[in-house]
Protein 1
Amino acid sequence: MLVLGIETSCDETGVALYDSELGLLGQELYSQIALHADYGGVVPELASRDHVRKLVPLVRQLMRSCGVDRADAVAYTCGPGLAGALMVGAMTGRALAMAWGVPALGVHHMEGHLLAPLMAVEAPHFPFLALLVSGGHTQLLRVDALGQYALLGESVDDAVGEAFDKVAKMLGLDYPGGPAVARCALQGNPDRFNFPQPMLDRPGLDFSFSGLKTAVRLAITQTEDYPGKTEDICAAFEHAAVGVLVAKCRRALKMTGLQQLVVAGGVSANLKLRKDLSNLAGAQVWYAPVALCTDNGAMIAYAGCQRLLRGERHGLALALFPRWPLTALTGGEV
Ligand code: KG4
Ligand code: ZN
């Protein structure tokens, strides 16, 4: 089954063709980063308008480069995300499916992230522990099968990606903040500031990042400026944030007895996180390729394909879910 995947939930227009037999045939990605950079964050109305401008030409380009003139099904992100932006992908996806006379299916954006590492030839198998780390989510889940996700812990305030973005903004670094902070951290000394690693002293698997963010704000305003201060703050912040993620993964593996850990979402592109998780004893750690960690069409095509193969389809009435917990999904073996 050849599936066209469409991702427009935030500030990336992503399209891809995934074939259930042949794998990923191709993908195209247009990032709106430059459009939103002046505002220091995503402006929803501008995002929607840019998806309208870019989506159809991207689909055309993808199909031309893959040498296909239609797909067997269309999968589009139907939540969570920005309502207007989701609408563009959903309407276009449905229209294409109707024109081709093929089924269409709305996909949960975070399920796309979660399953992306399974696209590889060598992939994890169920059950596994998953750490989902993005701009809006920090969650530990037990994954037993497609759609069978049990929440073990999550952030009680900011998501870790959001903390990276806010720290970058405080320091006057580029948007999006994660890659900018990580780049800057490479030049810094993590020991010059001692930031808290929140929630480590408490039992359980929840996270909190707002106290860490406040500690960074105080360091910025209350420490005298010196050359390299920004770099040192980035390094110490990354050290603290990654330290919490790694410690909670270790704890979750111990509590569940699982031996595979899947790390997914934009923050899973972070190289310090990958390096520190590689030292986790007794667990095999899986990621998507770095290019497929942040938002893209391939993960939506893949997750959509798994569900379409089970016979799932959505009717013509358009349902979008800007807020939608992953644990509300159902499923089973493919
Ligand atoms: O998954 P994603 O592309 O979008 C959401 O679904 O939210 O994640 C975006 C988040 C942003 O907060 C971004 O700053 C963060 O992922 N991010 C990173 C890195 N690359 C992206 N955070 C830390 N290090 C990175 N290398
Ligand atoms: Zn995402």
Protein 2
Amino acid sequence: MTNTESAPSAAKKASARKPAAKKDAPTVIEVRNPGTGQIVGTVPAQSADEVAATVRELRLYQPEWEAIGPDGRKEWLLKLQDWLIDNTEHLADVLQSETSKPRADALIDPSFGADLIGYYARRAAKFLADDHPSPHSPLARVKKLTTAYRPYPVVGVITPWNFPLAMPVMDVIPALAAGAAVVLKPSEVTPLSALELARGWREIGAPPVFEVVTGASETGAAVVGNADYIQFTGSTATGRKIAAACVERMIPYSLELGGKDPAIVLADADIDRAAHGIAFGGMFNAGQVCISVERVYVEAPVYDEFVAKLTANVKALRQGIDGRELKHDVGALANENQVDIVQRHVEEAVAAGAKVLTGGKRTGQGTFFEPTVLVDVDHSMSCVAEETFGPTLPVMKVADEAEAIRLANDSVYGLSASVWTGDKDRGERIARQLNAGAVNINDVFANLFSYALPMGGWGLSGVGARWGGANGVRKYCRQQAITKPIVPTLQKELFWYPYQNAKLLTALGAMRAAGARGLRRIDIPALLKLKGDNK
Ligand code: ADP
């Protein structure tokens, strides 16, 4: 085991805290470094009973967590932020051990996490403050109107393996900031970093409102079976199952799923920047990013220049296993399953006439696959139509902007996109025609580092969104409407029993006078009828 001495003991501690762990002897999941094949830790595959016991325990502590308010919670969240910063090197070690990421990539998770914590810890009070909307009609001015934001007691967060620390932080922190307790089920492929996060929470002495449960799909299903809100990130296939299970329980959910993000390079673009940006956007984390660039459309006049520059940039990438030194740009794929998908996409494309300009095969070591550029590809090929989630960049020539937009929108996914152009306003006009939850102009991933913006997918890329300023915490809350009288109240409202013509007419007439327009404000037939009744 390399650099992860504390991880299994953290796993043991985590499971020892759960009463049901003594009853069920859990089977064990081995965690491997995909670059070396070495086992780097073990975690229990927790049973549905254990998950239920964890959630029951979280429920006990949640009301107090809600009661201390956003300012009370801010103190704990900022302590966790300190802990992340102080433990960055160790967290990067653990993360590298279970992913084989280059050091540079591994260092991103803790820093990203600290940045996100700062945003939500400091702003939650403002975001969760009661709203006092103006009454819709003069008649409603007799009440003070309040919308209060009250957290779901227990939020279940289920995360994938591509960012083993950042993914949990992205959703756990806003939920905690909202006042919910959180049960996190990290991917069984990379559970060690999430266990470190839970260790950090305990180490700072925070209230026990955040727990990690480990295991595979059964453990995840138990989280869905017990929590009050589900935040899921992963494949569209699993997201669909989770949505169905949530509907069965009538609990809300938010899903961030697959993507096939297009990049559009226009003839007026800075081609050097586009070729650098798209190489990074396609190869970062070996392409295992939900919002990575997965297909590229280039206007004909700059196609040759762009392809040559992109290929040179991708060829220059250094691939291999890092220690603590920054030696490499691209690491391994998460597991053999990912290698199989990438290999199949490349082989099917080549068999159908595509050309590999660089890369195209596994390196022979661990689960490394060479950064790959493909041309002569089209939408009939799996490398363009299906999510690859690997280091491939299929590039297509288009006649003009209109063809680029049409092809970019020809996908069941709609997570994010990028447009590369010398005319930023043109870029924005194109952005508004793309079916994607986010569009970055002359950049990649920029929306991911802007928590004030929503991050969500359209189509099969998801339901709902994370972040988006206040919505990032309000989504974990139930909205409660409270009305409070602000004028002395009558013994009986006009509308209350027993119904009487005169009182009813006054009440309904007043509503009509306030809401309708022109002569319809006055209900003349009703007035005449009332006059008759009173004879
Ligand atoms: P991948 O991470 O390989 O894309 P998934 O989307 O299936 O695959 O996994 C994402 C997360 O969802 C992981 O933590 C996984 O254990 C969990 N998971 C898988 N199946 C289910 C399920 N039926 N219910 C709840 N969680 C699940």
Protein 3
Amino acid sequence: MEKLVIHGGPPLCGTLPVSASKNAALPLMAAAILPHGVTHLDHIPHLRDITTFSHVLRITGASVERKGRGLQIDASRIGFPEAPYELVKKMRASFYMLGALLGRCGQARVSLPGGCAWGPRPVNLHLEGLKALGAAIDLDEGYVVARLPHGGLPGGSYRFDPSSVGATVNLLLAASVGSGGSRIENAAIEPDVIVFCEMLQAMGAKLSGIGTRTIEVEGIRELQAVDYSNCPDRIELGTFMIAAAIAGTPGEPVHLTHTRPDHLGDDFLDAFQKTGAEYVVENGSVIVTPPEAVNPVSITTAIYPGFPTDLQAQWTVLLACAHGKATVTDQVYGDRFNHIPELARMGLQASVNGNQVTVSGGARLTGARVMSTDLRASVSLVLAGLVASGTTHVGRIYHLDRGYEKLESKLSQCGIDIRREQYDEFSAPNQG
Ligand code: EPU
């Protein structure tokens, strides 16, 4: 297995480039199997989740090839409308194949994703929504078996409660091709969904209301393959802004390049400024000036444009560096706190009560051997390692590799003492 070894202390300085978005890339890849042709997607990050989803697409008969910083997806020969358990269990977003295969083949057999590292994540809205638009849905030995009537999806209307990124994507994938009209209410308005809708539109899909809570779709017979460019990763930007605020030298700006700060939403940006950190936006870069002292600022996650749940673990580390008490409340996922016991091993003073963590900041964190449990938890451990005294070993970084591209090389170019090492989880500490 691999781990990251971080010697805390050296400040973060210089320029950190932000990679292309993982969560926007995945629906774009799913959309690429709708037309009978070759799609070129530019700015697709080199990540484990992209590799996994490429395999999922290949199973159906698509060819997926890396071309520099992008992907070429040839969907001329899709013949096997299935996403197997072995791949779906590795990455929940494989469930996008339900809508994509229905749109392309009129039928799909897609494994149910099951739970995730921090608890249950239901797919009821995906299934109820597709049924409301006219798909027949059955469950068979852990698989969803979906079928459209002859002539394609008849269409219909469905209101999400709560609004869901994944379910909005799935319904749009299925509804863009066909003969009927569909109306999706309380649709997700996350930037990842907007970028995906704009690609569907470029492919010829008849969508209206993009970026609003009500999207209407008129199914058409066939979509066209296009060349399309992905957006920067908003969660990586937020992670790096937090890193700069806590691990930079006070008063010395850190430059984050290739960014879309408007994709972060106002709640994150407002909370960030209240910490005392300053930022300015200049020509696609965010320039962060770390504060002399970090103010404790409580946050509550909410769907976009609220504070992203995907940044709450990282915010907890920021609060550990602030003097005073503050809370992190997650309203999107009530039990996404696997990082807390690991951070406690580094000296974090925090208590969890239901969906809220109270952090008493100010005590210096200390390096320790800690273990990643999921993607965002693992990057919170890396952030803690930057500010901790001594050496932090972050194990099981296959979680981190799902969503952060070349993290250690980016950080080491900014002055951080970090390296990747092989290790044996069961060996004694002095052996690795
Ligand atoms: N929900 C339901 N039923 C459903 C679907 C969702 O009750 O059928 C609930 C969820 O439990 C949650 C809320 O709706 O409380 C919103 O979940 P959503 O469906 O929007 O999440 P998702 O599409 O499964 C995406 C991101 C997640 C991110 C969430 C929330 C991708 C591939 N995943 O998941 O990203 O946390 O939106 O913003 O885009 C990550 O990158 O680390 C990650 C987990």
